[in-house]
Amino acid sequence: MSFSSYFLNIYTEAGLFSLLATGVFAWWKGGPPERLGTLVFGVGTVAACIWRALGGGHASVMPLFAVDLLMALGFLCIAIRYSSLWLGAAMFLLSASFALHATGLSDPARPRWHGMVIYLLANNVLSYLTLLALAGGTVATILKRRHTLRRKAEAEAKNAARPKSLAAAFIAQQPPRADMPSATPAGATR
């Protein structure tokens, strides 16, 4: 398999398109942790794809193992800086991918299931689940922003309905006194 034919493979194209779509969504609507997460995952995935393409589809597992280690360290730094639930899910998925590459180092036989290499299938599933975790983190950021904006609007509406001072609130609550002339015209009833 040549370098260009590796990227013309439907599985590679689908993975890179999913990565691009998730990255655009995270950079458009996400916060800093989502942007950094897609950047780390995107750089690692593209580096792994280039390595596989240079190896003709039969690249050694050691560089992929190193790429997953670097991605896991990148996600660890992001998790230390920003703590959120999706970061825990992404870290878990990257650790599973890291363990998968470790087993790939020890077992060169590559068992098959219905004609597909289980190692590659599991690697692809973990990659898509990590992209799903990144997209879920972006959706959580969107919902958090909406909640914050709704709370802010409610607080502003509540403050606008309040009288400006305690004296104005006290006067507004007092009924008019009988000995004070009223502002109603003569002959009008209240």
Brief overview:
This protein is mainly alpha-helical and 190 residues long. The protein has helices at 3-7, 10-29, 32-54, 61-81, 85-106, 118-161, 166-173; strands at residues 112-113, 116-117.
Fill in the keyword field for this structure:
single chain; 190 residues; mainly alpha; two-stranded antiparallel ribbon; 2 strands; rod-shaped
Task: List the topology elements.
Elements: H1 3-7, H2 10-29, H3 32-54, H4 61-81, H5 85-106, E1 112-113, E2 116-117, H6 118-161, H7 166-173
Antiparallel strand pairs: 1-2
Helix pairs in contact: 2-3, 2-6, 3-4, 3-6, 4-5, 5-6
Model description:
With 190 residues, the chain is mainly alpha-helical. It has one domain (3-156). 75% of the residues lie in helices and 2% in strands. A two-stranded antiparallel sheet has the order 1-2. A hairpin with a 2-residue loop joins strand 1 (112-113) and strand 2. Helix 3 (32-54) packs antiparallel against helix 4 (61-81) and helix 3 runs antiparallel to helix 6 (118-161). The radius of gyration is 30 Å and the shape is rod-shaped. It starts with a helix and ends in a 17-residue tail after the last helix. The model has no long low-confidence stretch (mean pLDDT 78).
Mean pLDDT: 78
Strand segment count: 2
Terminal residue distance: 93 Å
Q: List low-confidence stretches.
A: none
Percent in strands: under 5%
User: What structural category arises from helix and sheet content?
Assistant: mainly alpha
User: What's the helical proportion of residues?
Assistant: over 70%
The number of helical segments is 7
Widest β-sheet, arrangement of strands: 1-2
**What composes the largest sheet?**
2 strands, antiparallel
Order of helices and strands: HHHHHEEHH
Radius of gyration: 30 Å
